[in-house]
Amino acid sequence: MIKHIVMWNLKGDTPDEKARSAERLKRAFEGLVGKIPGLLHMEVGVDMSAVDYACDVVLYSEFDSHESLAGYTVHAEHLRVKAELGDLRIARHQVDYQPAPHARPVAA
Q1: 22-48 pLDDT per residue, tens
Q2: Domains of the chain and CATH, by start
């Protein structure tokens, strides 16, 4: 499995403008679920901390292989979403990694 995490800072002069942009980005990426081969899981979260160093939106996704992640990057639907949302972003950060075989979620 490959985990793909992307974080964005969005344009917006007011909190309402940023909130509308974040919701637009969230809906667009969530619309990819079921359309991308090898995409196992996707979550899009909007920051609620409001600290000055936080990103506005995070995308967390899991792919079944490196090949599936590579296919996602060039998939027509993903490229459409990127083009549609390109003017919303002012910064983008990304991490792709393969979790260690022994890594397990922490029990509550």
Answers
A1: 999 999 999 999 999 999 999 999 999
A2: 2-97 (3.30.70.100)
